[in-house]
Amino acid sequence: MFSLPTNLKKIALFLERLPGIGQKTANRLAFFFLRLPEEDLQEFAENIRTLKQRTKLCQQCFNLTENNLCDICLDKNRDQTTVAVVETVIDLLSFENGNIYNGVYHVLHGKIDPLNHVGPDDLKVDELIKRIKDNNYQVESKIKEIILATSPDMEGEATAIYIKDQIKKIDENLKITRLAYGLPIGANLEYADYMTLKKALEGRGKL
Asked: Which of 32, 105, 128, 159 is geometrically suited to a Cys-Cys bond with 111, CB 3.0 to 4.6 A?
């Protein structure tokens, strides 16, 4: 029975461990790497080898960066007074890809999930509170609004409530908002559950 060369097989087996990659796709990717020019393959291998060495967390918002501060935090054209609190860097990318938001971020790196043993101390919540406290002494860039952009599931809601309560303990006047949730574009009311309809009604706007 035919078997792939050992090195190629090891690469394919590793690729299978990646999210959303099955055996057939892993084999195709392994053969793709094999066909790459040596220069491209060496560059790719070097980027993989130094990935963890070069990648670190932004000291302010905990986005991924190669420097002490990420490009978003350093951008003077961004609204530094509005902070969107997101669960992951992937969520941050969703905002950035849509080009719909001009504020800055704070990445929690997770959400409160007791079933998986993830509590507030495992997230970047204390760092957010410290950021708000320290920012109170900034005049031009003082934080005016915190947007809680966590997921609309039970864990995301619990995380948003916890963060809101922690912020209120240090600044009762700071504006705290939550993303509106409701019907997506093109949705049919017939298939919407009651909680989605409830959120749509609560977040309705004037035409």
From this structure: 159
The tokens 């690729």 sit on which residue?
A: 15
**Residue 46 CA, distance from chain mean position:** 26
207 pLDDT higher than 90:
no
Pick the CATH number of 6-54 from 1.10.3720.10, 1.10.10.10, 1.10.8.420, 1.10.3210.10: 1.10.8.420
Mean pLDDT of 7-24: 94
Residue 143 CA, distance from chain mean position: 20
- Whole-angstrom CA distances from 45 to 28, 36, 51, 118 are 18, 12, 10, 34
Residue spans in the chain of domains classed CATH 3.40.1360.10? 79-178
Q: Over the range 144-177, which residues count as b (16 or more CB within 10 Å of their CB) and which as e? A: eebbbbbbeeebbbbbbebbeeebeeebeebeee
Whole-structure pTM value: 0.84
